[in-house]
Design goal:
It is built from 9 helices and 10 strands. By secondary structure, it is α/β, with parallel strands linked by helices. The chain is globular.
Length: about 260
C-alpha cells in the first residue's frame, strides 16, 4: 500500500502522508515522494502542491527511531540520503508547495514542511526538531531551512535546546505564515493554492528560483540575475498572454505551465 496518497484537484496536487499512527517516514515513502514530485514537475496542468498528514493528531513525527536502533552507520547514511534527496526535490518543485500542518510536526515531519514554500498550521499543532535529544541531528535540511526562515537564534533554541514550538509562537517567529482553527489547515492551504493558478507558471518558477537563490547568492549577483530572469520571460508564451489578457480585461489562459 502506498504511504503517500495523491490526487489532483483543479490545478493543485495533493499528497497526504499515510503511515499510521504518526505518519513516519520510511525509505519507501521518501523515494516515493521524490518520484511523485518529479512526475508533477512534468505535469503542466499542476501549478501548486499541498502536503498534509492523514488523521487528526499527526502531520508527521518524522523518522521511526526503530530504523536506527541497531546503530548501523551505513543504514543511517542511506536514510539521510533518502531524506535529503526527497526534500531537496520538493524544494525544487517548479510550482508552489504548501504544507497543511494538521498536527504534530516533529523531526523529519517538520523538515518536510520546511522544504515547502509556505506553511499553514492548525492552532493545536506543535513543531520541534528534537534529534539532538536522542544523539542525532536534523539531516533533511532542518539546520539550513529553519535558519533561513526564523534566523539563527530561534534555530538554536529549537535544535540545541530542544524547544518545542506551539502554533502561535511559530507564527510569531515566522516558522509558519498562518495559523487556522483545528481541522481547517487543508482547506486554507487549498484556498491559497487556488490563488497560484492566477499567476503565470513561468513567472512563479522564475521568482521562486530568485528568492531561494538569495539564501546563498551574494546580493551583488542576485540583482543582475533578477534582471536577466525578467528579460528571459519575454521568450515565454505566458508573458505575451499575460500582457494581452490585462490590456483586454480578460482572464489569462496560461500555456507554458
Amino acid at each position: 500500500m502506498s504511504l503517500l496518497l495523491e490526487k489532483i484537484v483543479g490545478h493543485t496536487a495533493v499528497i497526504s502522508m499515510n503511515n499510521p499512527p504518526a505518519n513516519t517516514w520510511t525509505a519507501q515513502s521518501l523515494q516515493e515522494l521524490k518520484a511523485k514530485v518529479l512526475k508533477l514537475n512534468d505535469n503542466k496542468d499542476v501549478y501548486a502542491l499541498v502536503i498534509t498528514g492523514e488523521g487528526e493528531k499527526f502531520f508527521s513525527a518524522g523518522a521511526d527511531l526503530k530504523l536506527f536502533a541497531d546503530g548501523d552507520k551505513s543504514n543511517a547514511a542511506d536514510m539521510a540520503r533518502y531524506f535529503g534527496e526527497a526534500f531537496e526535490t520538493l524544494s525544487a518543485f517548479r510550482g508552489v508547495s504548501i504544507a497543511a500542518i494538521n498536527g504534530y510536526a516533529m523531526g523529519g515531519g517538520l523538515e518536510v514542511a520546511l522544504a515547502c514554500d509556505l506553511r499553514i498550521c492548525e492552532q493545536q499543532a506543535q513543531m520541534a526538531l528534537p534529534e539532538a535529544t536522542v544523539g542525532l541531528l536534523p539531516c533533511a535540511g532542518g539546520t539550513q531551512n529553519l535558519t533561513a526562515l526564523v534566523g539563527e537564534g530561534w534555530t538554536k533554541r529549537m535544535i540545541l535546546c530542544g524547544e518545542r514550538i506551539k502554533a502561535a509562537k511559530a507564527e510569531a517567529i515566522g516558522l509558519v505564515e498562518e495559523v487556522v482553527a483545528t481541522g481547517e489547515s487543508f482547506n486554507a492551504a487549498m484556498a491559497l493554492a487556488e490563488k497560484v493558478a492566477n499567476q503565470s507558471p513561468s513567472s512563479v518558477a522564475a521568482c521562486k528560483r530568485l528568492v531561494q537563490a538569495g539564501r546563498t547568492m551574494p546580493r551583488a549577483e542576485a540583482l543582475p540575475l533578477e534582471r536577466t530572469e525578467f528579460a528571459d520571460l519575454f521568450d515565454t508564451e505566458d508573458q505575451t498572454e499575460g500582457v494581452s489578457a490585462f490590456l483586454n480585461k480578460r482572464k489569462a489562459v496560461w500555456k507554458n505551465g
